[in-house]
What does this fold into?
Amino acid sequence: MQLKVILLGTASAMPTYERGLSSTAIVRGGEVMLFDVGEGAQRNFLKSGIGTNRRMKVFITHMHSDHCVGLLGLLQTMSLQNRNMPMQLYGPEQINDFIHNNMKLLNFGFTFPITINTVSEGIVVEESDYVIKAKLANHSIKSYSYCMEERERPGIFYPEKAKTLGIPEGNLWHKLQQGEDIEFNDKIIKSEEVTGPKRNGRKIGISGDTRPDDNLIEFFHDCDLLIFDSTYTDEHKEKAKDNMHSTAREAATLAVKSNVRKIILSHFSARYEDINLLAKEAMEIHSNVVAAEDLLTIEVPYDQ
Ligand SMILES: [Zn+2]
It folds into this structure.
């Protein structure tokens, strides 16, 4: 199944000419998972071509305006376009009041059903083939980091083994390939008899605003891709501490400790004209660093 990440907004606090406020989309097969919707994020959402009437879940990391205010506009646009697919929204407890109070004040409604869920640490979403987990980040207000983790996939299918067992090609093969056990000639044939060892799914982490911390090292362990708060350069590392953000070097250091395959630096302070400086500092620590740009799309392949 195709899995990609689209960076929709990569600035911190204030937008710049080139960068919008925080928003990241994971597109997995036919489903979209949107993490944060900063003010104006809907413009890049539209440019990305994701589409406004898709199976979709939205996750808010925290209630700072550069991470959640854009939700109102995005949801209104979706209603103007007559979205009818249900949507699930997840975030800190204030997200419910935020939506309902604004609906009253601004006098709007939705054309689609929306379920609002309060997040706490642990498993937030459980689907048959993936889970979304949340972990408290280390920021100036309650803030969550999220991980999308695919479940293990069945191993490689060996047709010769199925043939040796006399199982006819077709539906039974398909079931075995999908990891299901079958009944054949009054015998149970286990999928693992005709497949190799189970294969890892993919794991994507999104830090939201945070200082690096030990809980997050564990939470993001073995991520194929991690998008991490990289607001500052080394020069402003004291500011990073004071404002409860991270430097690019700190992000890369955490990624090494977490055995993360690829790290995307994002959430850049508007003071930096040249983002290469942040990338350079991170590359001294981690060998697979990408500095985010708005609308950058990154495919996440299986590791085997
Ligand atoms: Zn914040």
In short: The pocket of zinc ion is lined by residues 62, 64, 139, 209 (CB under 6 Å).
